[in-house]
Amino acid sequence: MKSYLASRFVVLRDQERCIQCRVCVRQCGYDVHAYDSEAGDVFSCDERCVGCHRCVVFCPTQALSVRENPLSYRANANWRPEVMEDVLRQAETGGVLLTGMGNDKPYPIYWDHLVLNASQVTNPSIDPLREPMELTTFLGAKPEAVTLDPETGALATELPPQVPVAVPILFSAMSFGSISLAAQESLARAAAEAGTLFNTGEGGLHRSLHAFGEHAIVQVASGRFGVDPEYLEEGRMVEIKIGQGAKPGIGGHLPGEKVSAEVAATRMIPVGTDALSPAPHHDIYSIEDLRQLIYALKEATQYSKPVGVKIAAVHNVAAIASGIVRAGADYVAIDGLRGATGAAPKVMRDHVGIPIELALAAVDTRLRQEGIRHRVSLIAAGGIRNSADVLKAIALGADAVYIATAALVALGCRVCQMCYAGKCSWGIATQNPYLTRRINPSIGARRLANLLRGWSLEIQEMLGGMGINALESLRGNRLHLRAVGLSESEMRVLGVRPAGE
Amino acid sequence: MSDHDLLSSDPDQEIDAHGVHYRDLNARIRQALQRGPCQRLALRHVCGQRYIGTGLRSHVRIEIHGTPGNDLGAFMDGPTIIVHGNAQDGSGNTLNSGEIIVHGRAGDITGYAMRGGRIFVRDGVGYRAGIHMKEYAARRPVLVIGGTAQPFLGEYMAGGVVLLLGLNLQADEPHPTVHVGTGMHGGVIYVRGAIEDWQLGREVGRAELEEEDRVLVERLVYDFAGHFGGDPQAILRAPFVKLFPLYLRPYGNLYAY
Ligand code: SF4
Ligand code: SF4
Question: Smallest CA–CA separation between A236 and chain B, in Å?
Answer without folding.
Answer: 16
